[in-house]
Amino acid sequence: MLDAELHQASGLWGLARPLTTRCTAIVRHSNPEPHEWPLLWSLCQAWRDMGLDVLVLDGLSVESPDNPGLEQLLHDRHLPPNAAPGDGWVVLPAQTGIATISEVGMSLDGLGSLLGDYGVVALYTDIATWPKTFTACGLSPLVPLHAHSTSTVHAYLAVKHLLVQAQLRPTIANIAPIVAPVAHAASRLTDASLSAMNAVAPTEAALRNLQRCSREFLGFEPDALTVRLPAHGDCSRDDVLRLALLMLENSVELGSAHAALLH
Fold first, then answer.
1. What is the pLDDT of residues 205-231, one digit of tens each?
2. Which residues contact 60 (CB under 8 A, 6 or more apart)?
3. pTM of full prediction above 0.85
4. How is domain 20-253 classified at the architecture level of CATH?
5. Which of 99, 188, 194, 208 is the most exposed place for a label (fewest CB within 10 A)?
């Protein structure tokens, strides 16, 4: 029944396709994680399934003449030939362009005026290079929480930075590897018990700790959604769909073509 409601929700979003571009963001807060790109691709596919063209601005990759991206877009005022909407999703390198945005004071409205007919623009960037001009823009960036000991600390610092420095209220994606039960024990478990076990991964305790610290020291408890990750395979489709819908709800509308480019 829940799956039917999820698919109905995504279908309704597709029918109510926004006429303007929505901006969302995923923030990397530590060393590169093997699960972040698969999660991002899964989100892009979910948005595509809703009928939305998707542009990813990859703030971890540097633009070049042979691989144009956001920096060239800012100078040329039009999308590179390889970035036309309508064919899956497009990834543009954006590291230098994001730095330029901060330097010249470009707003989200100004950025939106350059991005054509995309339904979703997903900004993927390091917390240290988060555009200063996006402060208090109303966006709720996604902060991934991974299954290792240092991720909780880095995620908390990212939440603190976004809340205090950028005046943004982030959301947590709890990436939870599914822990398979021991073979002889599994034979005694019902399907319902196995399902419950799969849904409770070691990161649940880390998530509760992160939310508690944020609540006690920052006065803010971030919303969170768990994305189950099998040992072999893609992220849970239903979990990704929930997250994709939540990110759309927490996104902001970019400006129309008539918005000013600079403050």
1. 899 999 999 999 999 999 999 998 776
2. 28, 32, 95, 124, 125, 126
3. no
4. 3-Layer(aba) Sandwich (3.40)
5. 188
